[in-house]
Amino acid sequence: MLVEAPHLGEGCWPALDVEASSVLLVRPVPGHDGRRNAIWSLDAGPARAQAVFDWMANRVDQWPLWARLACLFGEQAVTAIVVDGAERDAEQAALREESARLEAEERRRLHERIELFVLDPKNKRPGLSLESGDEDKPFFVMRFSEKWERERVLDWMRWQKPRFQEFRGIAEAEGAVVLERVVIAGMRETEAEVKRRGIGSGGRRPLRFWRGE
What global pTM score does this model have? Predict the structure, then answer.
């Protein structure tokens, strides 16, 4: 079966002989409607033949040049240009694809890395924030009236790193207010447990010396 590149029926154009795994440069035979004459051919495996054919089919402006080269210098001249060009472009495409894959993988890795930051901006309330490594702003910010209130929550949050992915999911699905409630509830529950066990430090920061046990 001969598959031909889209053409106007004049000049020459690439074709693919699927059964023979060959790429051809064909032109019509005058006076014989539908007949083709191959002025250049390349035998290759199925995958390589398809790749070379696709490369040639996308370069319509080069078809007349390849025909002249074949007529003037023989098939080897066309082979050198076509094969080298197709392989060079395929290699560059593969490099671009690999680069894009590595960039996407790095973005995923950074997205999964969530850090806890302490905020002490000038003329603003103290706070805590959670931020992914691939973002330039936090997905969650929690503000406090006093620094000791921030430190009280920090004593609990600093040990919640395994839950940061969960926290982001809550913030994205239900909003920052819901996540703040989750954080406060978790902190108070832990404070109550620490107090029950008699290992709390008391005062405004009962988890000050707690180590996430």
Answer: 0.61
